[in-house]
Every structure is written in structure tokens, then in C-alpha cells.
Design a protein that fits this description.
The protein is about 65% helix and about 5% strand. A three-stranded antiparallel β-sheet has the order 1-2-3, covered by helices on one side. The protein is mainly alpha-helical. It has helices at about 25-45, 60-80, 90-110, 130-145, 155-170, 175-195, 195-215, 220-230, 240-260, 270, 285-315, 320-345, 365-380; strands at about 110, 115-120, 125. A hairpin with a 2-residue loop joins strand 1 (about 110) and strand 2.
Length: about 375
């Protein structure tokens, strides 16, 4: 292994084992909490309403978001305390549980926006496919880390199968955005594990064929298909395409309103009028663009870039290949969601319903992101154990 500047592991001299708290990446934790605080502020702005004397500001969404962040922080701490190498024994159970939950949610889950992807408990929605991202990262990382001499076609096929089973069940929901995230995780990990050029050509051809078959099969809803091309079509003809394009246009108006310094916190006309669809989730970046302007948007992006850098740093100093691959999986997940979520608000990426990590409203997304960072912290903490 290892491409892209990540060193090979193994060997070296024996070292004393420093106490574990000497190896906590406090900078990574600070960045994550900073982004989460920024996100909670944007969620509040997107959901508070007009906030008049007769109608006080709505705080229900931001209260839930803060609860999600607190739960996520606890989950991150627990995951970080566990030696990531011990997770190998839990992979069969975790993977089986994921498959079972994806089957159950398809049969008994709640349908929202045309996709049956959620369980509902006491007013809270739980999305199993979100938590499955962490399971996928650990499962694929453990398998790839055992391949020291590069990947054979059989290895590549087995790694793909690990991802393909949950992806197939998610396709039945259907949830195109989450499928793309799973693909990004798998792609990032196999690239770093040492995929050969001819293997890459074969994989790209297969993905292209499967993607074409998926779009033409009729399983995806009409609006989901239209979303894929809405950002390219400025004059859509069908009703579904016009609805998809409406999201892109309203996002562009909101960001355009912000200019350099923004209209002021809680003062965005598009945000206050709730003209941007799904603004607290998929289009949360438009709140920063409109109310905080270019300066505020860049500030948020700098924090997210710092998060990416800290994860890459842990990947580069991990003690073994499994630790490196776990960090690469988390990095691929964060990077893809970042580019896709921000890109679709700017009109340069398809509208696929992917949350911005630690920023968008949603318990499953927030807690999953914290759990993934817990894995990275575990790799950092247990380097000498």
C-alpha cells in the first residue's frame, strides 16, 4: 500500500507508551465543535421564523440540533476510547445489524419525500443508512488493511460486495444521495489501498453501466432523476424538472443576496420568507451565503478545510494500515458530502439531498459524523497501544 503520500506501516523500535490523553487530537475536537456551533446558529436562523411579538422565534429545531450535538459528542468520546483494532471482532455483528435494519426500514419505515428511509420514534426520525456509513468504513478498512501486496481483482470484488449489499437495499428505498456517499467511501479507500489502472477502468465501466441501469429501471422517483440534471438545465420543460430547478434558482438568489458581508444574521429575505426548500438540511449553506455573505461562507469553509486537514494528518501518522484506511474512509465521506452539499447550493453539482457534515439539521447525520470522528480519534489515541 499506500498511494497519495501515506507511508507504509510496520517495523520500528519499541517505544514507551505515553498516557492516552497525550494523544487526544484536541485540535480536531475543537474544529468539530466549532463547526457544530456554527451549524446550530444557521439551523436556528433557517427555522426561527419571523420572530415577532405575536409570534416568538421557533426554537424547537435548534434545541433538537443541540441535543443531537451533545449525543454525538458522547458517542464520539465512547468510540474514541475503544481501540479501533478491537472493532474487527464486531464487524460481522454490526454488518448483519445494518443489513437487517435496511430491510426493516424498507418494509416498515416512514416514507418522507418519496423515500422510505426512516424509522420514527416519539417525533424523532432515525435513518439506518446514515449509521451504515460508519459500519461500511470499518468493514472495508479491516478487509483492505489485510491486503499488503496491492489489490487483486478478487480483493476488489469482495470489497465492492461489502458495499454493494447495503447500497442495493438503499437503492430500493430509494435514496440516491446516500448511495453516492457509499460509493465515495469505497472509491476513496480502494484508491489509497493501491488499485491498479486496469482495475480502475473496469470498475468505472461497471459503475457507468449500473448507474445507467439504475436511472432507467424506474425504481428511482421522477423527481430524483430530474434532480441529477436540473443544475444543467436552465429552461426545464417538465413539471418535475421545473420543481427541481426551482431549488437551484432559489439557492442562487439567496447566496447572491449576501454579497461580501451578508444581509446580517436573521435578516436574509430568502431565509426569513422560507423560499429556499429544505434550507435547514440540504441547503443550509445558503443561510451562511445570504446572511453572512462571502466572508461568513469562507469562514465556514475554512473550518471544514481544517477538519479535512486534521483527518488527513491522522491518516498519515497512523500506526498501521487499518488505522490509515479508517481515516481515509472518514475523509472520503466528509469530503464528498462537503463538495456535493456546497456545490449543489452554488448550482455546480446535482441536487441529491446530501447533508453538510456537522452543519445540516438532522440527528442521524450529526451523530454519524461524530461517530466517524470518534474513529479518527481512536486511531490517533491508540497509536502506541
Amino acid at each position: 500500500m499506500i498511494a497519495f503520500g501515506l507511508p507504509s506501516r510496520g517495523g520500528g523500535v519499541a517505544r514507551d507508551k505515553p498516557v492516552w490523553w497525550h494523544h487526544v487530537d484536541y485540535a480536531l475536537i475543537a474544529v468539530v465543535l466549532g463547526i457544530s456551533a456554527f451549524g446550530a446558529l444557521l439551523v436556528y436562523s433557517a427555522t426561527r421564523g419571523p420572530a415577532t411579538i405575536e409570534q416568538p422565534a421557533n426554537t424547537s429545531f435548534v434545541t433538537k440540533q443541540v441535543v443531537f450535538v451533545v449525543i454525538g459528542t458522547i458517542v464520539m468520546s465512547v468510540v474514541a476510547a475503544i481501540d479501533y483494532r478491537k472493532l474487527r471482532a464486531l464487524i460481522p455483528l454490526g454488518y448483519t445489524a445494518l443489513v437487517a435494519m435496511l430491510i426493516a426500514v424498507r418494509l416498515t419505515g416512514r416514507e418522507i419525500n418519496g423515500a422510505r428511509s426512516w424509522f420514527e420514534f416519539g417525533g424523532f426520525q432515525v435513518q439506518p443508512s446514515e449509521y451504515g456509513k460508519v459500519v461500511l468504513i470499518v468493514a472495508v478498512a479491516t478487509f483492505l488493511a489485510s491486503r499488503q501486496e496491492g489489490l487483486s481483482f478478487q480483493d476488489l470484488g469482495f470489497a465492492t460486495l461489502i458495499a454493494a449489499i447495503p447500497m442495493g437495499l438503499i437503492y430500493l428505498q430509494p435514496d440516491l444521495g446516500t448511495i453516492l456517499v457509499y460509493l465515495a467511501i469505497l472509491a476513496g479507500m480502494v484508491l489509497v489501498a493501491g488499485i491498479k489502472p486496469r482495475q480502475l477502468v473496469v470498475v468505472l465501466a461497471i459503475v457507468g453501466l449500473l448507474g445507467t441501469a439504475a436511472v432507467s429501471s424506474g425504481q428511482l422517483k421522477a423527481y430524483q432523476v430530474e434532480r441529477l440534471s436540473s443544475f444543467l438545465d436552465e429552461n426545464p420543460e417538465t413539471a418535475e424538472a421545473r420543481r427541481a430547478r426551482f431549488n437551484v434558482d432559489q439557492a442562487a438568489v439567496a447566496i447572491g443576496n449576501g454579497g461580501m458581508w451578508g444581509t446580517g444574521l436573521f435578516e436574509g429575505s430568502q431565509t426569513r420568507s422560507r423560499l429556499v426548500p429544505a434550507q435547514r438540511t440540504d441547503f443550509i449553506f445558503t443561510v451562511a451565503g445570504e446572511e453572512l455573505g462571502f466572508v461568513g461562507s469562507v469562514t465556514l469553509l475554512v473550518l471544514l478545510a481544517a477538519l479535512v486537514f486534521r483527518i488527513w494528518r491522522v491518516a498519515s501518522i497512523a500506526e498501521d494500515n487499518q488505522g490509515t484506511m479508517i481515516c481515509v474512509g472518514v475523509l472520503a465521506m466528509i469530503l464528498f458530502q462537503l463538495f456535493e452539499s456546497v456545490g449543489m447550493t452554488l448550482g455546480i453539482m446535482p441536487v441529491t439531498g446530501i447533508p453538510l457534515p456537522f452543519v445540516s439539521y438532522g440527528g442521524s447525520s450529526v451523530i454519524t459524523s461524530f461517530a466517524a470522528i470518534g474513529l479518527v480519534l481512536s486511531v490517533h489515541i491508540h497509536r502506541y497501544s
